[in-house]
C-alpha cells in the first residue's frame, strides 16, 4: 500500500512541477511585512520569466530593487535607455516609474524584487 501512495505522490508532484514550469511569467510572494515608516510595508517577490517573455509596462506604489538571480533581463524605465542585467546585477526603480522587463537570454531568467511600498495599494499597477 505504501508503494502505491509513494507513486501517487510522485505523480502529483511531477504534475504540479510541470504546471509551474509551463507558466511564462510566475510571481512567487516571499515576504510581506510592516516597516517602521508609517503606512508602508516591505514586500519581496521572486519573478521567473520563460525565454522571450515580457512583463508589460507597469509601476509600483513605492521603490523597487530588482536583483537578477539567473539569466539576462532587459529593463526599460520610462524616459531612459534600456538596461540589460545578468545574474548578480541589480537595479533601483524609483516609486511610480513606469517600466517593463524582458527575458532576453536563451533560458529561464529570474529576479528577486524587493519593494518598499505604500500599504494597502495594489503592488503592480498596469500602465495606461
UniProtKB/TrEMBL annotation:
Where does the Cupin type-2 domain start and stop, copy by copy? 46-111
An example of a GO molecular function for this protein is:
dioxygenase activity
- Signal peptide bounds: 1-21
Asked if Oxidoreductase is a keyword of the record, the answer is yes
Instruction: Provide an example Pfam family for this protein.
Output: Cupin_2
Which UniProt keywords are listed? Dioxygenase, Oxidoreductase, Signal
Source species, domain of life: Bacteria
| Oxidoreductase is among the record's keywords | yes
Q: Which PANTHER family match?
A: CUPIN DOMAIN PROTEIN (AFU_ORTHOLOGUE AFUA_3G13620)
What is the protein's name according to its record? Cupin domain-containing protein
User: Origin organism of this chain?
Assistant: Rhizobium pisi
